[in-house]
Amino acid sequence: MKILVINAGSSSIKYQLLDMSTGKDLASGIVERIGEEMGSITYKTDSKIVNEQPFPTHREGMVEVINMLTDADKGVVKDKAEIAAIGHRIVHGGELFFEPVEVNAEVLQGIRDCIPLAPLHNPGHVIGIETAMELFPGVRQAAVFDTSFHQTMEPKVYMYGIPYEYYKEYGIRKYGMHGTSHKYVARETAKLLGKPLEECNIITVHLGNGASISAVKKGKCYDTSMGLTPLGGIIMGTRCGDIDPAIVGFIAERKNQSAKEVVATLTNESGLKGICGSNDLRDIHARIAEGDERAALALDMACHRVRQFIGAYAFELGSVDAIVFTAGIGENDPEYRARSLSGLENFGITINKDKNLNWDRTPSFISDDDGAVKVAIIATNEELEIANDTVKVLGL
Ligand code: AMP
Fold first, then answer.
1. What's the structural domain count of the chain?
2. 266 and 138 fall within a common domain
3. Which atom of ligand 1 is nearest to the CA of 380?
4. Residue 327 CA: which ligand 1 atom is closest?
5. For a tag site, which of 211, 309, 312, 377 has the least CB within 10 Å?
């Protein structure tokens, strides 16, 4: 059975076709710059093709995805009818969606209703679903929400200390993001531990360009570092993470900017980039090697925050079976991992130098064998998780 996973943004469509008998992706890629004069489509199988062409709307983008997938030469299916179902990644499900659901008119409206909570993401998701409905008539579709894994948080965890009416009127509370990744790596970590997930306390550390940490208690999300939006929590590539909220007004006054403008700076020009001008850890390491002090400060700050959250979550959980690193930085940056957990032997947390440096991409522990808390690296696979959820919710 073949499942197409779609992650539609305001001007892009990421896609991946998975073969569920093996869990492997047959083809993947992205349509970018939809609506601009010139767009592009990337199509990856064993080889990679990048074609430049205009995509006036999502519809033309999706048509080209279908053309590529069914191409006589480079295609991986003969006919689009081979696609059994479509799973959509949806960033924000607010308090409406606790789990993956089959798409129908009511669900589509629910995703629309959550637009104020994710104005940059949910509108693109709605267009993606509508386009897929039109181009794949009769094919069942599922919506899988980044926020739903975090819906098990208790009110004392997700409420902010602000007037209660703001929660009632505007839905202002902590929602958390990257839920699909946190859920996937938590489950894979439980497998490594050889215990049912429901018996495990795990701290999941998703470190990509966007980054968040979750405390998973007996298999359920207990707390997570992102908040109402993906701006909160740890320091990210270009996002500031948690800061004193008064800073927004302080900057707005001095720079004569609106709150929206300040938040744009905190989203796009802050984090690692704000401190040292680079948001990619590969550049930051290269600059540190050349003696760049700002780059060194940025890395120090980011690792310090990760450590703070891990410490807080260890106390919230009471006991920790494992800490698991995942995503671009979590999977590829041994120094970031080592620094985030250095000197914690008294808490039973160790990192084995060799295992940390020589991780071979198979899910495994990098802690010392006698470490009380296991430390793991697991490559995340959000698309596979979405495809699995799609199969489950549609009963395929
Ligand atoms: P993601 O959002 O999960 O794709 O992660 C992207 C980020 O991972 C990049 O911005 C880099 O900071 C980081 N990254 C990717 N490859 C490496 C690497 N080999 N070493 C260190 N960091 C890396």
1. 2
2. no
3. 3
4. 3
5. 312
Task: From 229, 16, 10, select the one nearest 125 (Cα to Cα).
Answer: 10
Q: Does any domain span residue 236?
A: yes
DSSP 255-305: HT--HHHHHHHHHHS-HHHHHHS---HHHHHHHHHTT-HHHHHHHHHHHHH
CATH of the domain at 51: 3.30.420.40
Q: Residue 393: what pLDDT?
A: 97
Of 145, 170, 204, the one marking the end of a domain is 145
How far does residue 237's CA lie from ligand 1's centre (Å)?
A: 10
30 SS3 class: strand
Give, rounded to a whole angstrom, the gap between the first and last alpha carbons of the chain. 9
Structural domain including 38 reads 2-145
Predicted local distance difference test score (pLDDT) of residue 210:
92
How far is 16 from 86, CA to CA, in rounded Å? 10
pLDDT along the chain (396 residues), means of 10: 95 96 95 96 97 96 96 95 97 94 98 91 94 96 97 98 97 96 98 98 96 98 96 96 98 98 96 97 98 98 98 98 98 98 96 97 96 97 96 97
Name the β-bridge partners of 292.
Answer: none
Check 71, 73, 79, 146 and give the catalytic one. Answer: 146
Question: Cα dist. 395→2, 84, 144, 145, 389 in Å?
Answer: 14, 12, 15, 18, 10
Tell me, yes or no, whether 262 and 343 share the same domain: yes
